[in-house]
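User: I'll paste a sequence; please echo it back and then give the predicted structure.

Assistant: Echoing your sequence first, then the prediction.
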Amino acid sequence: MSIEKKIKSTIVLDIDTKTVINLMHIGSWVNEKNVTFFKQFGLSSQQYNILRILRGQKGRPINLTDIHERMISKMSNTTRLIDKLILKGFVTRRTDKKNKRRVEIRITKKGLNLLEQIDLQITGHTESITKHLNYKESLILNELIDKLRGE
């Protein structure tokens, strides 16, 4: 179904407008799928993103700025997300005694265990989103998205 039909547009969209609306629509669609998937684990997709970033540190601490720079959504309130993860016992935050502005954030064993549970299901989740694309089409789509971002 074309995006014009999907949004019930009464006008023919120029190609640039159609492209941007398609991207906005697909982003929203994927986000809705992610909200449903991560809800079963008591997480948002942004919280999951932070946990993955922390797991990638392999036990080394990371500061808030570095986490924020690696976030998929730069609009996220990283401090608030970290606070929620701390309350759930998935991460710890420690302020350096010598330099109070230096804050170290680490994933906990509980956080790692949760990621292991998610790992068991994430492939099925992502495949359900991309099921209408074959491998070559997925490669092309990724190349086009990288090109759109100017990378």
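Helices lie at 3-6, 15-39, 45-55, 64-70, 78-87, 109-130, 135-148. The chain has a mean pLDDT of 92.
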